[in-house]
Every structure is written in C-alpha cells, then in structure tokens.
Amino acid sequence: MVALLALLAVFALVAMLVDRLDDEPATLVADGSTSDGGADPDDGDGAPTGPLEGTFLVSGSSTVFPIVQQQAEEFTEIETGVAIAVEGPGSGDGAKKFCAGEVPIANASRLYKDEEIEVCEANGIEFIEIRRGIDGITVITSPDNDAVDCLSFNDLYALISEEAFEFDDWSDANALTAQWGGTQFEGLPLDVFGPGEESGTFDSFGEVVIEAVAEGKTGLDPEAREFVTTIRPDYTSSPDDNVILEGISASRYSIGWVGFAFAEEAAEAGRARMLAVSKEDGGTCVSPTAETIASAGFPIARFLYTYVNAEAAEDDPAVAAFVDYMMSDTGLESVSAVGYVDLPEADQLRARAVWTNRVTGRAWE
Q1: Crossing angle between the packed helical segments 317-326 and 65-78, to the nearest 10 degrees
Q2: What's the rounded Cα separation, in Å, for the pair 288 and 296?
Q3: What is the pLDDT, as a whole number, of residue 365?
Q4: Domain for residue 308, yes or no?
Q5: Are residues 94 and 161 in the same domain?
Q6: Contact 307/61 with Cβ under 8 angstroms?
Q7: Domain extent at residue 272
Q8: What does pTM read for this prediction?
C-alpha cells in the first residue's frame, strides 16, 4: 500500500512538471541546451544574448563596395538594432583607416601591400584576410567608338603607361608600338579615364598589365629596351567609378578601366562599351564575361578581399555576426548578384575556414 501511494505521488509530480513546461516554452541557448523562458537568456558565461546592437563603418575598395553594401542592407533588415555604413574611397584609403584601428572591416580589390601590413603590425592590429570573389578589370570606351574592338597588353602600355605621358591622340602611341611591330592607331583624339592611386583597381591594372609588359611577359624583350612600370600621371582620375563612366560616355574616342560589375552595368545601359583584350600582339582577343573571368581566360582578372579586425570580431558581436552573414550561403549570393564572379569551391571552403577559425595574418598569396 505504501509503495502504491509513492508511485501515485511520482505520477502527480510528473504531471505537474509537464503542465509547467506547456506553460513556459523552452528557449534554445548558445550551447544547444534549453532553459526556461526567462527574460535574459545567456550564452553560458552570463552575458545577455538579446537582440544585436551596434554601429560601425566598413571602408575600402569601391570595387568591393556593391557586394558589401548589398550584404549590409540585407543583414540590417534582419538585425534591426545594427547600423552599418559602407563607403568606397579605395583600397589604399581603406587600408589606412583599417590599420589605424578606425574601422573594424575594410575591403580591398588586391592583397594589402607589405608596407600596409607593417602599419597594421605597428599599431597592434591583427587581421583576418578573407578572399571574397573574382573580378575582371575591364577596359572600356564610348559606345560610339567604332575604331577599336580589341587591345593587347602592349597596346595598353603604349596608351596608358608613363611612356604615353602627354599623348592626346591615339596615333601618338604609334612611335612606341612601331618599335616592336605593334598596332598602328588612327589619328583620333585620346581621352583617358581611370581610378586614382588610392584605388586597388589602379594598382591591379598597373601590376597585371603595365608590369607584365615591362617584365617581358607579353612577347617583348626587356633587355632590348627599358620599359616603365608606372601609369601616366596626366589622365582624368577619380575614386568614383560613376565619374569615370561619365567621362567615358562623354568622349567618343575615350579609353579607361573599371571593375567588371560597373563596366557591365554601364554597357547594358548604353553608357560604355567593353573591349576585348589579348595578352600578346596578335593573340586571342577575349571579351570580359562572368565565364571568361572565372576560367581565367580573360587576362586581366584579380581576386577581391575583405579584412576583418580580429579583436573587433571577438569583442563586438555585431561585427562577428555581420561577417558570419557575409560568408553564409545567402550572403555570398551578393557576389554574383552585383556582377562579380563566385570563387571556385576549393577557394570558398578555404575562405570560410579562415574566418571560422579566425586565422590571422597573411592567408593568401
């Protein structure tokens, strides 16, 4: 009889507990366990994990800007307590702010230079270097320019390198190209537009095109004559791609260079025409498309990057959550949505591992 009464008491206790659980839904907490529906769930360390709050600035590359701008808009629609401003003054200017500790995240259309890394190190800034996507630097002209369809690296050198200083007619380049039996251009007014020295697109164009010619990678002999590695200083420059495109559109025989996404959008709007490019004189002319850039068939392709301050990612949940979103499947859709090219699967897995494991310092070559 005593045993029966004890058993009935257990049943009554279980029923009471079930009623309580029905009244108070369980809440999933950070470690995957459950707690009752208290007002201040915590992450296991006693810190509140309520709605995210925070305000921060993302600076850097104008090329990467549209990717991160779209991601920021999407993220802040979900996390309404977070405000993110995104600006695009250029990779170099972004690096200055980032390495001074002024911004927790900065974008770049190239890897940070050694001297920029040295500034970060001197200021105690540990960084996480994340590869984001692929871009093709696109050579553009006015949609009304019917005099040119394809240019070689050697042509571009003759028109845009420092050896082309004060050239204001396409035919001015003929004295240079004649030295290697290259293209002879018509006598047409030449206006050059491009990003300024603060831009990663400026740096990348110089490294990929001008330096390739100077190093003998385009069929010319650097021992037969001296080549420069710099871009002419007398062109119309701007950190704003839209300003560059306005200049291109307004000058019939213009030439310039911007990131693929901006060039493609301008071409579709009838504001510019994208030119095919060959690495060598007489080589295969390749037009910039998402497919040719992804396959590296287009010769002026480069990777895009985001730099994250490791301490900010640790101390500011809003910063960490935003980068989590950037690297999520949904966030990564922004890369192709704004006109750039997704990373190959192996690179994408590696980029995610760099972020997930908070790998600091140089992660890519």
Answers
A1: 120
A2: 10
A3: 86
A4: yes
A5: no
A6: no
A7: 138-299
A8: 0.78
Compute CA distances 360 → 109, 214, 303, 323, whole Å: 19, 34, 19, 15
Q: Residue 51's pLDDT band (boundaries 50, 70, 90)?
A: confident
Residues 165 and 294 in one domain: yes
Sheet architecture: strand order including 54-60: 82-86, 54-60, 105-108, 301-309, 127-136
CATH assignment of the domain containing 154: 3.40.190.10
- Give yes or no: residues 290 and 168 share one domain: yes
In the chain, the amino acid numbered 355 is W
In a domain, 38, yes or no: no
Nearest to 341 by CA among 132, 160, 68, 53: 132
Span 21-41, average pLDDT = 31
Which pLDDT value is given to residue 50? 63
Residue in 290, 133, 137 with CA at minimum distance from that of residue 200: 137
Length of the chain as a residue count? 365
Q: How far is CA 225 from CA 162, 185, 280, in A?
A: 15, 22, 17
Q: What is the pLDDT of residues 319-353, one digit of tens each?
A: 999 999 999 999 999 999 999 999 999 999 999 99
Mean pLDDT of 148-172: 98
In the predicted structure, residue 8 carries a pLDDT above the cut 70: no
